[in-house]
Amino acid sequence: MNPTDTAAASSRLAPPGAGPPRRHRIGGAVGVGLVALLVKAKALLILFKSLKLAKLALTMGSMFVMIWFEAVRYGWAFGVGFVVLLLIHELGHGVAIKSAGLDAGYPLFIPGFGALISLKGQIRSPIVEADIALAGPIAGAGASMACVAIYFATRGRLWLALAHTGFFLNLFNMTPIAPLDGGRAARVFSRQAWIVGIVILAGLFVTTQAPQLLLIGILAVTHTFSRRGQPADPEVETVTPEARRGVAFEFFGLCGFLALGTYLTSTVLSHP
Questions:
Q1: Are 173 and 181 within 8 A, CB to CB?
Q2: Considering the entire predicted model, what is its pTM?
Q3: pLDDT (tens digit, 9 = 90+) per residue, 27-70?
Q4: 148-193: per-residue pLDDT in tens?
Q5: Of 213, 69, 92, 96, which Cα lies nearest the Cα of 144?
Q6: What sign results for the dihedral spanned by CA atoms 229, 231, 236, 241?
Q7: Angle between helices 157-172 and 211-226 (to 10 degrees)
Q8: Left if phi > 0, otherwise alpha if psi is -120 to 50, otherwise beta: which for 139?
């Protein structure tokens, strides 16, 4: 009997409707299920990566648009440098956000306005919010100082122009009004801190003539007297006096540093 006949005989002996053994059917179903799960997991991973890539592409695209926007007015070299200064400012916020245990989005550049970085999660306290807010101008001040250092090393006036722009914009960002960084940091100030700060700002304005200081001072006076008779913010009331003084010292010290940087770079730029 050849193999074909044997197979035929076996099939005749098998009961009607009989198929593969039950364990084989279960194993096959499990295998199909695992394959389906792997396919879905892979699809979700691809989707997740595509979303991240889309966000990154949006950041890069907005960055190049911002460079073009500035390059049309001031040249490509300045446009690139200006966008890098903005990026470092936003990365300062991003590092502080991560340090606070929160998630940060990708920076987004808006021609004519600046840049922003999204925050995902709930800020735990006004002090954490102040730290995140001030981290951007601190990083921006450091980047501007790096431009000053490169200027002294190369004598390239482009670096001095970038430093001046960085000092100027970061000082403007310290204005105590939402949604600027200064408005988010100044929330914790006591009335006494505002009074001392106004005196400091007045002295700095006389020295540097920085218009941002005048704006900050006017808003500070308005804010100080507008709070009289208003109920206290329960969240701010939980902040210790020492923590408030620390934020105020950091805020007004940063204002002074940025104002002097703006003034000195402007003075050097005005003398060819």
A1: yes
A2: 0.71
A3: 554 444 444 444 444 444 344 444 556 666 666 677 677 777 76
A4: 999 999 999 999 999 999 999 899 888 887 778 888 888 887 777 7
A5: 92
A6: positive
A7: 10
A8: alpha
